[in-house]
Amino acid sequence: MRKLIEKWNYDKSKEALYTNTKLTAKYESILVDNLEIALHMMVRPSSDYLHTVTHMGKTFIVCIKAKTCTCQQFQLDELPCPHALAVLHKKGLDGDDYSSLYYTKENMMKT
């Protein structure tokens, strides 16, 4: 069991070392996939932080200050969902800055 954990830690540290982004490769890939979906959404601001996002006939409310979306994915994964990324993209903000610190290369190197 100890060898398995040691190997896992080594593999994850190695992966983080060769990542050129703020997030590890796995989570950066998820953000890229979510952004591709987000580019097809319509965003209407209600305030500086609150936005209504419409996609395929469904409506979602995103609060970027609280890092929440009515789809619940943003809160559960602590990674911007496609609806949140649609808002962030429209505002010119980076999804990495709204992701959990657990997904960063820096934290992966510490494990």
Automatic annotation (TrEMBL):
InterPro entries: Znf_PMZ (IPR006564), Znf_SWIM (IPR007527). Residues 60-92 form the SWIM-type domain. This is Putative ovule protein. It comes from Solanum chacoense. It comes from the Eukaryota. Pfam families: SWIM. Coiled coil: none annotated. GO terms for molecular function: zinc ion binding. Keywords: Metal-binding, Zinc, Zinc-finger.
